[in-house]
Design a protein that fits this description.
By secondary structure, the protein is mainly α. The protein is built from two helices and no strands. The longest helix is centred in the N-terminal third of the chain and has 44 residues.
Length: 80
Amino acid sequence: MTTEMIWSAVLSGVLGLVTLVLRNHVDEVKRLQILLNRTREELARDYVTKADLHTDITRVIARFDLLEKKIDRLIERSVK
């Protein structure tokens, strides 16, 4: 064997190892991206935005105001 053949074999082996390591890293990054996307979907499903929360709270408060007015009218009727 000549030096060139040995050098070529060493470079081929190193290139093969580098390719294997890079492939494993790319697969891991893809897996992490999938997990991140799933997490984003779950967060969007489980939690509410500030605007939605504000709208809901406003509706609840409005309903309480109506109930309060009705109770006041009932009390006024019973007092008279």
